[in-house]
Design brief:
Helix 3 packs antiparallel against helix 4, helix 14 packs across helix 15 and helix 16 packs across helix 17. The N and C termini lie far apart (85 Å). The protein has a five-stranded parallel beta sheet with strand order 2-1-3-4-5, sandwiched between helices. Helices cover 64% and strands 4% of the residues. It is mainly alpha-helical.
Amino acid sequence: MKNLQNKFISGLDGLRALAVIMVVGYHLKLPLFKGGVLGVTIFFVISVFLITRLLLQELENKNSIDLKSFWIKRIKRIWPALIFMISIIIIVSAFCNRILFTKASHDFVSAIFGFNNWYQIFNNISYFDNGGAPSPLLHCWSLAIETQFYLIFPFIIILISKIKNNKKERYQLLSLITTVLIVVSSLLMFILFDPTGDPSRVYYGLDTRAFSLLTGALLAIFTQCDFNFALKKNINDAMGILSLVIVCVIVTRVAGYNAFLYKGGYLLTSLFTALVILSILRKKSLLSQVLSIPVIDWLGKLSYSIYLWHYPIIILISGGKKSSVPTMLVEIMLTLVMAVISYYLVETPIRRGILSKTIHALKTKTADNAFLIKKGISIMTLCLTLIITSCLCVAFVPKESMSDTINPTQSSQNITQTQKKKKETTKDQKQDTQYVSLDDDQEIINNLDVFVIGDSIVSGSFANFQSTFPILKLNSKESRQASTSISILQTALNDEGWNGDCLIFALGTNGPLYDYLPQVREILPEDKTMFVLSLHAPYDEWTEDNNKKIKEFCKDTPNVYLIDWASYCQGHSEWFEKDQTHPNKNGGTDEFLNCIKQSIIKAYKDNKIKLVKKQ
């Protein structure tokens, strides 16, 4: 295409810088970057645009593509910095945080060999909920997607070049196939996305994310065609700026688990990113000049190293939860330091062939190559030492997981059976019309027929629930989503004949609440009181939104009351297991039940809720 930058594209590194800032802001849990995961989408479009452009140029110049050379270049670009980061994180976490080391060890092989995304999918590991701090290597899923794409897409280009010798026909067929694949991948994301569950499957999948990479490929095909880019400079600049603004608005307004992203948001972001790149490509465009400011351009060059290092550093220092401003500054500065070391001492020298040059210099034994040999041997020694040490750590250092610190709990089925026995002893007493005195706290608790729907947090406190509430029906399960509460309540009311006094809704740590609270309240009979537990799950990105929704719901809905566990436990990290989510046995579960008990008593007293005496 005419009027476009051909070789070095000024401004593209600046766009990379913006993308990595979005991702870092998201993992730091900054309010302006709720949708910072879209920074990865921007990376996808940019990376595949550049790679496809190079492949097409090689095909035009040589009438063939050297796949061996292509993959060697990709390995040099991705692996040295990746292995450097993984080795150091494995070693550091082995000494400093055995739980994170265990999680990183599980991801070790899949992260290095480019199938981390499928490893997460097949092991049901959520990107958004990890039962505490996630693996420090979890972010390697995106590198796996790119690696898999680079193994497949070049073959499509080569196959089409064999079918169509004419350049115009070749590009027409390639653009048609790429467009069809974009549509198919987008539809897969749309269809497979379940708004009531964890979106990690469609978030990780190559099949459901390929449209972003293919959008970059389609842009490269478009720009390699021989026609004039006819947009006037002012229109081109306006198009680029408006597209970038739209992407930034989505990043600041839409959370990473929001259904909008999976119902077209990721595709829109990919398309608008392509328009931004198209605007940058025009010679002397406004965006290319702005994004070429030295500091932004430098950050863009470091963007891959920054992406590799920021996430494990944040996980190791703050565990992935929102931290104080000073801690964030430490995390940012340490990320930049490690990114600079990685980029200048490992990534760039190896990409430029320092290892092969060193081997050649050793063979020739020329005195002029002494510095080169010393530098090359130093880099090889460092890398080999780190790789061997990290492998030894993975093989021999004892592992530890959160399940080692959280005791197994009784199943929800047994809990339900226990309730049925208690119910048989009290069913005749329900006809008694004597009411409980609201002046006696213990009398309120003793006569309260409670139904609890919860997740592993409730299961971990089962014994305390039993000792606190004499008349109890409890249904809990690990990793339970709020969506299941509807069927559980309907079964209890219609099939099991539950006719108690109050429902305690204790879900929301494993996913967004969406609109399930009002649905539960609608199913629950009007005379039944409902209590909703606020959340303390600092590692989950939806905790803040869920708590806001819970408080508004309790405030605006009749006969619904808040159990504010989030406020009650504030400043008491000693009450929790290492994941800072599950109450521990050293006072945490006692305080958890005390918070619930006192909140219920207060609600019954303050609102003069009548309670039939059963005992």
